[in-house]
């Protein structure tokens, strides 16, 4: 091992020991030296395993391998012997470590949520509401306010029984206290104090004091002043009552403010939530997530030319070195053009599944938003997710330590590209233009080393912007058209794999393919499904040719047609097709036009 490799290995060992100290700060120096010595004996591949296990903390298997290796290094046991005799000890250490890591992760996540600005705002709002409610409904200490009529108040004033009167400002409220109740309260309180003084001299001081109850405080009365009583002040002066003006109660003001805030802001909470989700890009639009496609080219039929073009791109992704020797580069984008239902989305999924790379599928309409700037942000999020998925796929392939790691690949499929990629300047939709500009920037921003391949599908290529179609963005344009008779037969074979039929399945497929000119893959899949439903409706467990022909009739002309000249003609044409299909299944085929819109002429031939 040369000096450079030795320094690299020692640096990696130092990193591993530092991470082990984070997990177990109590490792003695003697054990640390022993671990370092044993780590030096490990190969580069094993050292990379330990380093990745301590650094990424991703899977239980990696932690299990790490713990077994560390216990073997510390105690000097043989690895096989350790596997036979110390399973429980390794399992306990593994569970303890995983439990600690789980608690730490949950604690970090909880603290991050609590100390985020949203958490602090919610905490402050709840604290303010709790304090306001507590102050607003806190009862006054032993003071009871009793509402009385204004006439009762005047009677007490004439009796000179009113001691204090408080006029509340900015309202008609009058608070007053009665003289006789106040005197009675004082007398009872003085009597209680004298009783306590006498009892305090005895040895039953504590127990008796607890039985002595304080007298209730006098009540405070509330009434409302009647407008027009101009002699109230004179009556109060004559009665000898003390009166004054007091500001409004702070509790009443707080109640009013709290109720006002609730009445105004609570109905606006749904609007705030909706606006926040729109601004944060979470409103009803699901975020694109990379996943592995289970569809391959074996599931696609009838579009052999398009499959051949895409297979070349797949071979490039599988064997990049072969193409790079000649200076070839991975195409940045492939545009699939064709009418609806021809299988453009299925081709994109099959391409990703055949190459074994992550697949992201979005619709271009998800980029269009009512808020300016949100569409461009969605495009940035999509390509950031694609780059991360490409990097992760490169990590899963597991390049050898020390060897240059090959870049991964991720396929991004954008359906209905014309929704966002239309020609600029033809409309006043500024948001769509900004989204398109961001898409063009992203496609120019990544290179072939990042491994992001963009597939797009559209059935309106003539409306796309010229800057989007130039080489360097969409390097390859593949037309996916309606299949011919052989293509329709191959598509029917794919959809009829698990469909039980009466007779020769190949003959039925040829017959149905010959009587369905102009049908695309989606139409043929619907024909097979309708035929199966017709067989189930009749209580049969197998599907007949008549079911397929009736399904063709339903798909072509619809269901539940009314009577009329046109409808009678359509029904007659459908009966002729079913009759023709029956003849084909018994040994006939169509001649002329290849079965794709040309003249349909029955011609009897012998089938091998």
From TrEMBL:
Molecular functions (GO terms): ATP binding; ATP hydrolysis activity; ATP-dependent peptidase activity
Keyword entries, A-Z: Membrane, Transmembrane, Transmembrane helix
Region listing for Disordered, in residue ranges: 588-608
Top-level division of the source organism's lineage: Eukaryota
GO cellular component: chloroplast thylakoid membrane
Keyword Transmembrane helix: yes
GO annotation terms (biological process): proteolysis
Family: In the N-terminal section; belongs to the AAA ATPase family.
Matching Gene3D superfamilies: 1.10.8.60, 3.30.720.210, P-loop containing nucleotide triphosphate hydrolases
Membrane-crossing residue ranges in chain numbering: 114-137, 257-275
Protein's organism: Klebsormidium nitens
InterPro entries in alphabetical order: AAA+_ATPase, AAA_lid_3, ATPase_AAA_core, P-loop_NTPase
Keyword Membrane among UniProt keywords: yes
Positions of the AAA+ ATPase domain: 330-484
Protein name per UniProt: AAA+-type ATPase
Pfam family, one: AAA_lid_3
